[in-house]
Amino acid sequence: MPPATNEFTVNDRTYRPPARPVAVICIDGCADEYLDTSLALGRMPRLARLLEEGAFRAMARGALPSFTNVNNSSITTGTPPAVHGISGNFFLDPETGEEVMMNSPSYLRCGTILAAAAQAGRKVAMVTAKEKLRDILSHELDGIAFSAEKADQAVEGTHGISGVEELVGEPAPEIYSAAASLFVLKAGVALIEREKADFLYLSLTDYMQHKFTPEDTESLDFYAALDHELGRLLDLGAVVGATADHGMNSKQTAAGEPNVIYLESLLSEELKEEVKVILPITDPYVLHHGALGSLACVHLPDSIDAGTIISRLLELDGITEAYDRPTAARKLELPADRIGDVVVLSGRDVVIGRTPDYHDLAAIRDGLRSHGGRYEEMVPFLLSEKINVEYSRRTGDLRNFDIFEFTTNGIQT
Fold first, then answer.
1. d(CA 398, CA 409)
2. 307 touches 324 (CB < 8 A)
3. Contact at 8 Å (CB) between 297 and 321?
4. Measured CA distances, 277 to 160, 259, 295, 297, 374 (Å)
5. Rounded CA gap, 375 and 248, in Å?
6. Domain annotation for the chain: domains and CATH numbers
7. Which residues, at least 6 apart from 396, have a Cβ–Cβ distance to it below 8 Å?
8. Rounded CA gap, 195 and 412, in Å?
9. Which of 9, 114, 142, 256 is 20 to 30 Å from 268 at the Cα level?
10. Tens-digit pLDDT profile for residues 319-337
11. Do 101 and 90 form a contact (C-beta atoms < 8 A)?
12. SS3 call for 189
C-alpha cells in the first residue's frame, strides 16, 4: 500500500508530504560549480533530463558557520542555528568550560522534521555518511537511523535496523572515500525498494570535494555515480529534494601552502594575555581539513574589550568580518551562549587556525580545500519536480533548510 500523506507541523512549519516516497539529500560540500561542470561535460544525464523537463533548480543560503553539524541540523529542523542551538561541530561549553564536540542530541533545542514525520505515521529513515551526525539527527526518531561509516554495527534495538551491509549488498565503506557517500544513496534506494522507509534523509560526506576540484576526473566520476543513484530513486517513484550543507573553496597560497592566519598565537602575543580561539570546524575527520576553516570564535579575558579586538582583526589581510557576541548572534542567526566574545570570518582563500602546533598540516599535504565562512554559504537547491505556483513565489531568498518544506509542499500535483 502507498504511504499515507500524514500532514504534520514542527517548529512553526507545516509539512504535507505526498503519498509517494520522499527523499531529501544533503550533498555535503557541493558547491554549485560541481553540478555545473558535471552537467556541462555530460556526466549527469539524469539530472540534465530532469532540468530539461522543468525540475526546479536554484541557489540557496545555508546557515553560518557553513559547517556540517550546523547545516544538517538546520535542514532537519527547518530552522537557523539560533533556534536549534547547534553552533558548530565543536565549541566551548559555557556550562563546563570544556572544549567539546557538539554531536550529542542533548545540544538540540527543538524537534526535528524526521521525528515529527515518524510520529505522523511515515516510515522514516535517516542515513548519514558520518557517524558524528547520527546521534543528533536521530533525536527522538522512531525509525531507522544509521551511518555508512558504522553500517556494520547497526542493530535493531538502537538503529531501527540490522543487516545493513546485506541490505545494500556492500560492506561498510572507508569514510575517506567516494564510496561512503554512494553507500548512503544505495541504502536509500534499498530501503524504498524493500518498503522499509517512505520518508528519507540521506546525508553524504564531503571527502571528494575536500580533495578534488570540479574538473578533476575523480570528481566527475563521483558525480556521475551520484547521478546514477538519483535515477534509481526516481525510478522508484520518489520525490527528491537536494541541497548542500556548504560549498567548498581552495584555501592555499600561490605556492600551494595552506593560507592560514594563526589567530590564537597572534592575539595572545599582541595582548600579552591568554586568548582562546575555538574552531567550530574541528571534528574527527582531520584528513578533510586539518581543523582549518573560515570561521572562528574568540574567547577573551575579562580585561580585554571586544571592540578593540574587532578593530585590530579588521586590519588583518584575509579577515573579512568580525562581530561581538550580540551582533554575531543577530546577524549570523547564532545561539549567543554558544559562540565566542568575538566571531571572525575570513576570505575566500583564507582559513583561521589556533597555533602552528595545534594543526597537523601533514594531514592536508596534498592541498587544502575547506569551508566555514561567507564564501561557502551559497549552495544548490534542487527539486525533482516542477514547482507549484504558491512556492514559486517564495524563492526570492531561499535557505537550504527550506528543502523539506519545498519537497513536501512545493511540487506540482
1. 15
2. yes
3. no
4. 39, 17, 10, 6, 19
5. 8
6. 8-247+377-409 (3.40.720.10), 260-370 (3.30.1360.110)
7. none
8. 25
9. 256
10. 999 999 999 999 999 999 9
11. yes
12. helix
